[in-house]
Every structure is written in C-alpha cells, then in structure tokens.
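Suppose a colleague, Dr. K., hands you the sequence of a protein chain of 489 amino acids and asks what its three-dimensional shape might be. Before reaching for any lab equipment, you can write down a predicted structure in token form. Begin with the sequence itself:
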Amino acid sequence: VSTTGNDANPGTQLQPWRTIQKAASILTAGQTVMIRGGTYSEKVTPLNSGSPGQVITYMAYPGETPIIDGTGVSLNRSDYRRDGLLQIIGKRYLTFTGLTVKNSSYECINLNRYTEYSHNDYAEYITLSGLTIQNCSWAGVIASYSRHLRVTNNVIDKTDYSSGIGIWSSEDIVVDQNTITNGRYFHEKQGATEEVITISSVVSFEVKANSLDYTLPAPWDTSDPSYYFDRLGINVKDSSQNGRVYQNTVRNMNAAGIYVDAYTAGTVVNGVTKPPLSHIDIYQNKVSDGGGIQIGAELSAGVVEYINIYNNLVLNAYFSGIQVKRAHGDGLRKNIAIYNNLIYGASPAGGNGGAGISVTTEHLGSNDSSKPVIIQNNISMFSFPSGTTYAGQIRAGNSTIASMILASNNLVSGPLYCSSDYPSCVEVGSRITANAASVFINPQGLNFHLLNTSSAVDAGVLLSLFNFDYDNLLRPWGNGFDIGAFEYH
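The predicted structure, expressed as tokens, is then:
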C-alpha cells in the first residue's frame, strides 16, 4: 500500500494499492501487507482472519512511518461494540506493527466480539506491537470479549476521556512494555472515565514493564478541591482473576499508582453472583510522586481476596504508600499479604495524615486460619519534607482493625502520630527502628540498596511466596531474608 498507489492495482511493490482498507478487504491467512510511509485518512476494518501458523500481518515498510489519521473520519458511537480507526471485530490471528494511529474522534483501536452475548466469536490471537497511538478522543486501545491478546511495546499519548489501554471481560491478556503518557486527559467532571491501564473482569493476565506518566498541564482549575483526586495509573477491578502486575513504573498519578478494586466482583447481577476479584500478585513496581498501591472494594457486596504485594518501591507517596482502605461501600477484603516493600518519603500534595502502610477498613476476613492482613519485612520511612508529625509508619485505623493484622519484622523511621481522620490509630507489630543513612547506600540519591552493616540484613521472616528481590537477585542470601525490597549480596 502506498499513498501514490491505486486500489485498482494488483497490490505489488511496483503497483501498490492506495488504501489500507483495500488490503484489509483482500488479505487471507498467511499474507502480509507492507504499508509505505505517509498519511492515510481512513478507518481500517479487517474482513478476514488468519489461522494458526498463518497470521495476517499489517506492517510498516522498513524505515518508513505510515500514519492512519482520523481527522475528518466519521466513527459510529451508537454501535454497542464501539468503533475505532482500527476496528477489529470477531477476527483472529492478526498482527499490527510499526503503524501510527492518531486523531480519532472515538477509539483509536477497538477490539470486540462479533455478536452480542456470543462466546464463540471473540477477537482472538491479536498482536498490537510497536505502534504509536496519539490523540484519541476516548481510549488508545480498548478490547472487550477478546482472548490471547498481546499489546506490547507501544507508545500511547493523550487519550482524552478513557484509558490508554483498557481490557474488559477478556482472557489471556499481556500488556507489556508500553509507554503511556497523559492517559484520561480530562477530569471525570468533564465526562472522563476509567484509568490509564484498566483491567476489568479479565482472567489470566500480565501487566508488565509499562511506563505511565502524566506530563501535560491539567485541563481544569486545579485550585478547585473537588477536582483533586483524579489520576489513577493501573486499575485491576471487577471479577479479574489470576493476574500479575509487575515491573511497571508509575508517576504522577495522584489518586493511586496501582489500584485493586472489587467493585461489582462478588455482587449479584441478573440473579448471578459474580466471582470475587482474586489471586493478584503486585511486585517489583516503582510508584512515585502520587498515590501509592491501594486495595479497595467500592461496593458493599464486593469481595477482594488473595492479593500479594511484594518487592515494590513507593516513593514520595500521597497520603499512604500502601493502603487497604475504607472506601465508599467498603466491601470485604480477605487474605492480603504485604511483604518486603520499601516506602520512602511522602508528598505534601497529598495532605497531612496517612502512613507508610495503612489499613483503615474493618471489613476484613480470611479463607483460612491466617490473619486477614499480613505485613512483614517492609521498610517504611514515610515522612513529609516539612517534618509534619501527622503521619505514621505501619498503622491500623483503630484497635479493632489492629487485631486483624499480623505485622512483624518491619523496619521503620519517621513520625508515629495519628491524623484527624483516624484519631484512634494504632501502630502495629514488632519492628526495628533505624534511620535511612544507616540502612541504605545513598538514600538522597535514591540508591536504596542495603549497606552491609544495615540492620535490615538477615532480619526478615523467611517466606515461601517468592525467592527474588526487586533486582531479580536471589533471596534469601546469607542467613535469612533481608527486610525491604533489596536483598544484600
């Protein structure tokens, strides 16, 4: 395909087609279309599927940049399956690589099943790789009722009203090594919804090594406090199960960097009880300069269970580094494990209060004989630059909550005071007290590897859940687990 071609041509290198849609209407299993550089003002809807071992590939001609530009292209907002500049409905075994998709009046890339309520015509075995996605009125990539989807190594900037990448009601999903800036640009009061990466009712997924940031000025009056808590990075919600969120970098998300929220999970919908949100591992992430890692259940009937949070760095957090929080309807949280994380610093932009690790809901339970929340081997040095005292380290909202927590072998430094929001707070568990200079190589330079003389070395509880640290180095190394995200080697 070339901007100098003609759709009456045979589609060869010397006689190319003019539109990508011409190729999308003709390609069959095992074929590849090479798209020359230039701008293509069109919507692309593949008509055929590939097959196992015979993928249909849409790719940029080597060294050139083809652009699918939605300026002036009409999209259908009334279709229940939604509509995108790249519209993949019920197709299988397709790969798209090296293209730019931008300026869409609705979704930039949309995947969905062909027939409403059918389980037999999902979009399946689709790969979106090496794409540049820009200026989408709603989502950058949105997929519903899809299986075996790979969204990897894409650059996404400015999605106005919805997610950079949003996955709904799908199975076997990998979202890997994407760079997303300015997701959900507008505020919810301006009609915006969802988060930068949304994983909703997805079974078996990985959200890995993505970089999320917010770099543009906010398109509203930030002095209005009702607009304050808004940016949310990665959200795993509803009945999502068996997933991993790891090695991501999340910055400037003031509501939360990583959020797990049951919402409708566990509730009764049309007479059927939805499964709980369960078995999610969150590890080796770096979350900074905004909200930390949070576990919520915003409807009273919601259920979250079996969540493991370990080997994460949370730097300069708003309000709390890691929270199991009371929120809205305050559903049930069960079997939450918080191990070997490092929380350092706090941002005054989040206001006074909070703690390095805080548990502020009484709606806790366990599926076995263990405590509902286990907090071990963490380092919490949660303190504001101004030195305000309204902050804590490893804290329960009250004594009832404290009785449902097992906390031990944590290392803390900083203020230990209750805030006005939780005046009956309780610092929980056994801990070591040590300052940053005696624990880390260079905390001012954000080098949090341990000194050989650190009181965190060999001071942790031995765990069976994992055998590696933030750097993927083996742990334990020496006589036992070290406290914090890094194992001394």
